[in-house]
Design a protein that fits this description.
By secondary structure, this protein is of the alpha+beta class. It contains five helices and twelve strands. The protein has two domains: about 190 residues, 2-Layer Sandwich (BirA Bifunctional Protein, domain 2); about 40 residues, SH3 type barrels, CATH 2.30.30.
Length: about 250
């Protein structure tokens, strides 16, 4: 049922590593063979990173922490679509498991209700005006029950009440990521862009944000092609990078 073409067909399993993205980056730099779809997975990621350098909390042997190597052949200006693809692949997977109230908090945190369940770190290497390669680091909370992070994370076991087999879940998740990635390769970028907005947390809602150390009210209207958040504030549309705006929700 979850047969894949190439993502995860080659896999490196590690008991413990600082960061799967860092390990994969070093591996690729030392090799003359680049295998698209190569996955590095670890039971214990000691220095997992999220957006803005935040740490990713993960209990040893309880969650999925892995990285995928991709060769998307996209223009650099369109690189944010990779983030959309990975986010939607995770959403598809979680929906298939039966989780509800799923959304994407810009740029690519996956939420279940008001709680974060998955984080993504995309690192693109550019050559000229094109993306040479992509490292997609993914953390997904699976069997962890107790968390100490301030953002009140959740996990699959907390949502479904049942412990999961990590190897089985990884195969399923890679299937859904590959399905979205193949759709991008086949030219369905417009569908991906629209679908991302369908799941974007807070779109067309009035929310509180912090901008330049001031609290303002605004409405999320979309995301630009390069990944900037488009927010309507005082009837004027503005675009923000990740470090320029903070959600207060």
């Amino acid at each position: 049922m979850f047969k894949r073409l190439f993502i995860g067909e080659k896999r490196i399993n590690l008991l413990e590593i600082d960061s799967t993205n860092a390990y994969l980056k070093e591996l690729i730099s030392m090799s003359d063979r680049e295998i698209e779809g190569l996955v590095v997975v670890t039971k214990n990621q000691l220095k997992g990173r999220g957006q803005q350098g935040n740490n990713w909390e993960s209990e040893n042997g309880k969650n999925l922490t892995f990285s995928v190597y991709l060769k998307p052949n996209l223009l650099a200006q369109n690189q944010f679509v990779i983030s959309k693809v990975i986010s939607l692949g995770i959403i598809d997977f979680l929906m298939d498991l039966g989780l509800k109230k799923l959304s994407i908090k810009w740029p690519n945190d996956i939420y279940c209700g008001s709680n974060k369940i998955s984080g993504i770190l995309i690192e693109n290497a550019l050559k000229g005006n094109k993306i040479y390669n992509t490292l997609a680091g993914i953390g997904l909370n699976v069997n962890q029950i107790n968390f100490y992070s301030e953002n009140n994370p959740t996990s699959i076991i907390k949502e479904l009440g049942k412990e999961q087999d990590l190897d089985e879940l990884l195969n399923q998740l890679l299937f859904f990521i590959e399905k979205r990635y193949v759709s991008l390769k086949s030219g369905k970028e417009k569908f991906i862009n629209n679908n991302y907005l369908d799941f974007l947390l807070g779109i067309n809602e009035t929310l509180n944000f912090k901008v330049d150390n001031e609290i303002v009210k605004g409405e999320i209207k979309g995301v630009s092609s390069i990944g900037k958040l488009q927010v309507k504030i005082n009837n004027q549309m503005s675009e923000f990078d990740l470090k320029e705006i903070e959600f207060l929700i």
